[in-house]
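B., you asked whether I could sanity-check this one before it goes into the benchmark set. Here's the sequence:
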Amino acid sequence: MRRSKKPVPDLVQPDGFFEALVASLCDDDLKEIACADYGIGKAEHFQHLKTIVDVSSIPLPIRWHPWEVLELYGWSEPNLGSSFAEIRAFHRRRAFCLVVQLVAAVSPNGPFISHSHIINLIKSLDAMDAGRGGFGFLWWLSTSLDDPQNCVFTAIGALYLGLSLNDNRPSELATVIDWLMSMEATVAAEDRHTGVASEWLRYKGRADTAWRRLGAGLLDRVAELRFAILEDDVRLIISTLLA
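And here's what the prediction gave me:
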């Protein structure tokens, strides 16, 4: 399903986010990602990953090398028993893999992505304390994807990260909430004759444990900030999509 983009307020620019992300990676990080397909083709995967990092640019369209390992690592989870430092390093690597995939998805004839790509990116950006750069990237992504359902889920992630910022601003967060709810209404309206999209949003949010946990985290974060003006809206989002 495609939709025409509605104008959105330019809250933050994602400029510099990808550059900072790739600067946090070393060759050992790239070698670990390159081995994600049981080590098959690891040398060629590594060279293509290294090129992306060295030039801070994503070649489009992305070929099999390194797409296969980007996708496989994006689905992975940290090893049990990992130290705090190891977990943060894992999430930097996974965030890199998912950001590359999601930027590719925004390009013309981009690859398919699902809500699972989005929830994994949200979790990794949060775990690595991506801050305003991570918030800005998710906000940009939520207004750039073609699939309205993925736009809604990505905007929820932007709100989740935005509530954790040291310099968060109620007006900025309210803008995300207003846009999120307008998109949810758009999804429902576009498929009202079947109800498929609207029901899909509610089903995935309620059936998926990761999204339910995110909903609980949203409420915790807005309660800690004591932004009463936002709390009712966040409760509405949770009850509508995630409860």
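One thing to flag: The radius of gyration is 18 Å. Otherwise nothing jumped out at me.
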